[in-house]
């Protein structure tokens, strides 16, 4: 299996609660290129199975977790497409790291517990310093949540 986008982040920038490999208490979300993208559209994919403590009400996933997953999948996808467009290997220096400038979430249906969720990211805008990723969270082939992440290159003040 190929390494996840987040596994290419520099170690000093890998502490995110949602996806940082250095944060063992975090979600450890892993994002990849989606091999089954439709019509040649570049897409990304991640899978996540919520734990029982990610409950909103019995049998349903907490909405804040879903927003967190969308956030991390979006910024990871932004980094990956930036490397791809620059014709550079993932993890090469200087690192492409993105942070969230805006996060929009639409909850369409209750998200059931006990199953693995699939996140599919599609790029709606790609610029050098800004990437917009539209993400569907799918449970049992139903889109439960749609989100949009406006990701911008991490300011140097954060590194």
Characterization of this structure:
With 159 residues, the chain is of the alpha+beta class. It has one domain (30-158): Hotdog Thioesterase (Thiol Ester Dehydrase, Chain A, Roll), CATH 3.10.129. Helices cover 14% and strands 32% of the residues. It has one helix spanning 63-85; strands at residues 31-33, 43-48, 98-107, 117-126, 130-139, 142-153. The protein has a six-stranded antiparallel beta sheet, with helices on one face. A hairpin with a 2-residue loop joins strand 5 (130-139) and strand 6 (142-153). The chain is globular. The two termini are 30 Å apart. The mean pLDDT is 93.
Name the strands of the widest sheet in spatial order: 1-2-4-5-6-3
CATH architecture: Roll
The CATH topology turns out to be Thiol Ester Dehydrase, Chain A
Percent of sequence in beta strands = 25-35%
The residue ranges in which pLDDT falls below 50 over 5 or more consecutive positions are none
SSE topology string: EEHEEEE
């Amino acid at each position: 299996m190929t390494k996840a986008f987040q596994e290419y982040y520099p170690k000093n920038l890998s502490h995110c609660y949602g996806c940082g490999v250095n944060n063992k208490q975090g979600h450890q979300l892993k994002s990849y290129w989606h091999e089954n993208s439709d019509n040649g559209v570049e897409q990304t994919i991640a899978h996540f199975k919520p734990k029982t403590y990610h409950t909103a009400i019995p049998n349903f996933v907490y909405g804040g977790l879903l927003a967190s997953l969308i956030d991390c999948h979006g910024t990871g996808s932004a980094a990956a497409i930036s490397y791809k467009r620059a014709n550079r290997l993932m993890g090469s220096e200087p690192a492409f790291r993105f942070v969230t400038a805006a996060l929009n979430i639409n909850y369409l249906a209750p998200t059931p517990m006990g199953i693995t969720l699939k996140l599919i990211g599609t790029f709606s805008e790609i610029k050098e310093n800004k990437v917009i990723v539209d993400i569907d969270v799918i449970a049992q082939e139903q889109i439960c949540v749609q989100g949009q992440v406006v990701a911008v290159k991490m300011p140097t003040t954060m590194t």
